[in-house]
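Sequence only, no structure available. Ideas?
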Amino acid sequence: MKTKPLALLGVSLLTAGLNFSAMPSASAAGITPQQRSRLNRAVNFVFTKAQKEKYRVIKHKWNFQNKNDIKVRRRGRCYVGKGRFTHYLRFVRDDVVDYDITLCKGKITKINYKYKDRGWSEAVGAVTSGLNLAGINTYGIDKINTILANKFDGGVRSEGKIIVINIAKRMQQKYSPKR
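Reply:
I predicted one. C-alpha cells follow.
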C-alpha cells in the first residue's frame, strides 16, 4: 500500500486556536492503521509514565523516558503541559523534542514544538569550530548543513510534530471540563 507523505501535517504549531477537528484523518495523512496503533501507544507512554526506548512510531524510533514525560500544571482556568522525548540515533547523541501545550476552557490554545538536532549538527559543528580556529570562514558550511538537515531529515521533524499533536489531543480529552 502506497502512502502519502507526512508533509500533509506540516501545520504551524505556534499558532493559537488550532482546529484539531480539521486535521486530516490517519489515512489521509498516509498513516497506516498499524502506525496509528503505535502512535496511540506512544502517547500512552507519555501519560502513564512508562519508559520505552527505541520504540518505532511511524518511520522513526523514539525514546520515552518517565523523567521527561508530560507534567501538567493548572494556571487559573488553563492547563499547561510540558514534556520531552528523544529521537533515537544509533552512534551519536539523540535528538530532542521539547514541547509545551496550553489548554484553556477545553480548547488547545497553544502548542510550542522545538526539535533540537544534536547528532549530525554537533558533528558538523565540531568540524566547523576547528576550521574557525584555523581562521577559515565556515559560513557556507553552516548554511549547507542547515539546508541538508531540513531537506534530508527523513520526515523525523514531521513525525515529532504528529506525536506532539496527538499528545495535545489526549491532554484535551483528559483535562477538558465534563459536559
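The longest helix spans residues 156-175.
Hope that gets you unstuck.
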